[in-house]
UniProtKB/TrEMBL annotation:
Reactions catalysed: an N-acyl-L-alpha-aminoacyl-tRNA + H2O = an N-acyl-L-amino acid + a tRNA + H(+)
Enzyme Commission no: 3.1.1.29
Domain of life: Bacteria
Gene name in the database record: pth
Upper classification of the organism: Bacteria, Bacillati, Actinomycetota, Actinomycetes, Propionibacteriales
UniProt family annotation: Belongs to the PTH family.
Residues the entry annotates as binding tRNA: 24, 80, 82, 128
Provenance organism: Nocardioides eburneus
Function: Catalyzes the release of premature peptidyl moieties from peptidyl-tRNA molecules trapped in stalled 50S ribosomal subunits, and thus maintains levels of free tRNAs and 50S ribosomes. Hydrolyzes ribosome-free peptidyl-tRNAs (with 1 or more amino acids incorporated), which drop off the ribosome during protein synthesis, or as a result of ribosome stalling.
HAMAP family, per the entry: Pept_tRNA_hydro_bact
Pfam family, one: Pept_tRNA_hydro
This protein's name: Peptidyl-tRNA hydrolase
SUPFAM superfamilies in the cross-refs: Peptidyl-tRNA hydrolase-like (SSF53178)
UniProt subunit comment: Monomer.
Molecular function per GO: peptidyl-tRNA hydrolase activity
Main location per the UniProt record: cytoplasm
Length: 202
């Protein structure tokens, strides 16, 4: 069983948005899962089922060996993208995390592939995961690490595009994009929004 961390020392909740299961694993819509996987590796943690049964989590601390930093809970909701708000709300309640300590990592159509933007607050811009989060949390005032996937080529339907795999050329670059997005999450938590935007907002 996963015990709650103390909310008094500012626990951060980092939620990777995506769809569960192997069918969706390589899709553009699942970039949030890939980034939280990288962060889990950096923390040296293993995904475990949260007691709510609605998400998998990894708990740890950022920072250098011997100089532990903020407590972080990485989360991958087990629900589909349009229902991630419920599991995220449950985790935020369990770990006593306010919206200003919540980071959503997600794909972004309006940003070119291999670029990203980090921001606080905003609308959902047609993204079903963000829409669900805003609805369940009652606010949009959480951090977003928006990982660019670009617009679909030609007349391809947007829904088909986000639920498709990366091109062979993109797959060569993807590990670097995931690594950079993980860096952005760490910088946001350790150094704040302004420095993160200066460094990563392409």
């Amino acid at each position: 069983m996963t015990e709650p961390l103390s909310g008094a020392d500012g626990v951060w909740l980092v939620v990777g948005l995506g769809n569960p299961g192997p069918t969706y694993a390589g899709h553009r819509h699942n970039i949030g899962y890939l980034v939280t996987d990288e962060l889990a590796t950096r923390l040296g943690g293993t995904w475990r089922s949260h007691k709510s049964g609605r998400a998998d989590v990894v708990e740890g601390r950022l920072g250098m060996p011997g100089r532990p930093g903020p407590r972080v809970v990485l989360a991958r909701p087990r629900s589909y993208m349009n229902e991630v708000g419920g599991p995220t709300k449950a985790l935020a309640t369990f770990y006593k995390v306010a919206p200003d300590h919540l980071v959503a990592v997600h794909d972004e159509l309006d940003i070119p592939f291999d670029t990203m933007r980090v921001k606080l607050g905003g609308g959902d811009n047609g993204h079903n995961g963000l829409k669900s989060l805003r609805g369940s949390l009652g606010t949009g005032d959480f951090y977003r690490v928006r990982v660019g996937i670009g617009r679909p080529p030609g007349r391809q339907d947007v829904a088909d595009f986000v639920l498709s795999t990366y091109s062979s050329a993109e797959r060569k670059v993807l590990p670097f994009q995931v690594d950079t997005a993980a860096d952005a999450v760490e910088t946001l938590i350790l150094e704040g929004l302004e420095k993160t935007q200066q460094r990563f907002n392409s």
